[in-house]
Amino acid sequence: MVVKLNDKPYEIADGTMLDAFIENLDIQLQGIALAIDFEVIPKNEWHNTTLIDGMSLMMIHAVSGG
C-alpha cells in the first residue's frame, strides 16, 4: 500500500503503525508534529494509529529562533 508524507509517496506494509513508519524514516523525532488529513495526531497516539492505503500525512518541524 502507499501513503504520502508531505506529498512524497511511500510504499509500506499493510497494518503499519504511524510510530513504526516514522522511526523507519530515520529522522529526529524531537520537534515534529504529524497530521493525518490535516488532523494533528498526538505523539502518545502514534503507536495506536494504523496507516491505511492512500492516507495523506503531513510532517511539521518546529523552528525556534529570534
Question: Could you explain the architecture of this structure?
Answer:
- 11% of the residues lie in helices and 33% in strands.
- Strand 1 and strand 2 (8-11) form a beta hairpin.
- The termini are far apart.
- A five-stranded mixed beta sheet has the order 2-1-5-3-4, with no helix packed on it.
- The chain has a single domain (2-61), classed as Ubiquitin-like (UB roll) (Roll).
- The protein has one helix and five strands; from the N terminus they run ββαβββ.
- The model has no long low-confidence stretch (mean pLDDT 92).
- By secondary structure, the chain is mainly β.
Spell out the blueprint of helices and strands.
Layout: E1 2-5, E2 8-11, H1 18-24, E3 32-36, E4 39-41, E5 56-61
Parallel strand pairs: 1-5
Antiparallel strand pairs: 1-2, 3-4, 3-5
Notable traits:
five-stranded mixed beta sheet, globular, 66 residues, 5 strands, mainly beta, Ubiquitin-like (UB roll), 33% strand
